[in-house]
Structure formats: structure tokens, C-alpha cells
Design goal:
Number of strands: 0
Radius of gyration: 21 Å
Number of domains: 2
Keywords: Signal
Structural class: mainly alpha
Shape: elongated
């Protein structure tokens, strides 16, 4: 193999790797992978840690995540979380399903990660 062909192959492989990395990073969504305030996002809300996740529409999930991330105090967070849990409890009862129990309290996790003073 000639030096020019080798250089061409290395260049193509590098460009392909860069293109694939960009696509993967673009799919991280709002907040990226940061851990706290000012760190690019932080909390990840999902079916495994949000009671009623499967009972919410995509828009309701997005709204809930935005509201949770916008809370300024632990008390505000717990009030929002309690109201959301109550709403999802009512919705689950109407549909005859049982809500999942979160493994951890979202507000406690946010507090531990420095989201609140």
C-alpha cells in the first residue's frame, strides 16, 4: 500500500469517527450528561424514577422535567413532586393500574447533587 493510500484511509476513518461521535452527542437531549446546576443539565427523569411516566404524554413528561429542573428550593421541589404524584395516582386509579415506586426520591437526589442551597 502506498503512503498516499494509507493517509487517505486514515483520514476517512477519522472523519467517519468524528461524524458518528457528533450524531451520538446530538442525541443526548437537553441537559446533556452534566451532574448539577450550571453543569449542563443533570437529572434524568424516566420510567424507572418517575411514578406515572407511562401515563403521561410526551408533552406532559417534557413539562414535568422542565418544572422539576426549574425549582429553586427543596420545599418547592417536594411540593411539585407531591402534586405530580397525586395527579398520577388519580390517573392510575382511573385506568386500573398500579404506579411504580421510585427507587429514590427525585428531590432528595437533586438536593444531594447541589441543585438547592
Amino acid at each position: 500500500m502506498t503512503t498516499a493510500t494509507t493517509f487517505k484511509n486514515i483520514t476517512l476513518a477519522t472523519l467517519l469517527a468524528a461524524a458518528l461521535s457528533t450524531a451520538a452527542l446530538a442525541q443526548m437531549g437537553p441537559g446533556g450528561g452534566g451532574m448539577g446546576p450550571g453543569g449542563g443539565g443533570g437529572m434524568r427523569f424516566s420510567q424507572s424514577n418517575t411514578p406515572g411516566w407511562t401515563l403521561m404524554t410526551q408533552q406532559e413528561r417534557a413539562d414535568h422535567m422542565a418544572k422539576m429542573r426549574a425549582t429553586k428550593t427543596f420545599e418547592e421541589c417536594t411540593q411539585l413532586q407531591d402534586a405530580q404524584h397525586q395527579l398520577m395516582q388519580e390517573r392510575a386509579k382511573e385506568k386500573g393500574v398500579t404506579l411504580n415506586v421510585p427507587r429514590q426520591n427525585g428531590c432528595n437526589m437533586m438536593k444531594a447533587r447541589g441543585f438547592f442551597k
